[in-house]
Amino acid sequence: MAIPITKGRVETAKKVVIYGPEGIGKSTLASKFPNPVFIDTEGSTKELDVARYPAPMSWNDIITQVEDTAAEVPCSTLVIDTADWAERLCIKAICDANKKPGIEAFGYGKGYTYLAEEFGKLLNRLRDISDSGVNILLTAHATMRKVEQPEQT
Fold it and tell me: How far is 15 from 136, CA to CA, in rounded Å?
């Protein structure tokens, strides 16, 4: 039996990451997406006329808000503004749960493995929301770092 082949454009929800330096307009651009609801981790939407969840104070708050979006579908676009501040809350939750003072205290790379696993769970939840037709948009900060080249011999 032959496998059916389809043709043409397939409409799906978009998954987008907008990153750039602080203050460049990432949140403003995100507000232009269809019917957005923000999970505003850093308070950057205060000057925007947008729908938003209460400011998350913990990683669990973010997960709860994402799960609420999956259950209620209150929007056409879910915006997490910003992913790097969400990551900070994730790190704090991991460290608190394991009674560690910081992510480096787990030992060589282990803390970052826990972080990747936990943040990956969030990304999986977001994929499920996207599969249901809701656009997903994450904003993130880009930072300039000085890189020193090793001396060449």
Answer: 5
pTM for the full predicted model: 0.86
**What is the Cα–Cα distance from 98 to 89, expressed in whole angstroms?**
14
User: Could you give the C-alpha distances from 53 to 36, 63, 80, 106, 110, in angstroms and in order?
Assistant: 11, 12, 10, 33, 32
Q: Which residues pair with 16 in a beta bridge?
A: 137
Is the torsion defined by CA of 52, 57, 59, 63 positive or negative? negative
Element (DSSP H or E) covering residue 38: strand 36-40
Nearest partner of 139 among 18, 56, 43, 53, judged by Cα: 18
pLDDT value of residue 120: 95
Cβ atoms 55, 11 nearer than 8 A: no
State how far the alpha carbon of 31 is from the alpha carbons of 20, 44, 50, 101, in Å.
16, 11, 7, 36
Residue type at 98?
N
Q: Residue 98 pLDDT > 70, yes or no? A: yes
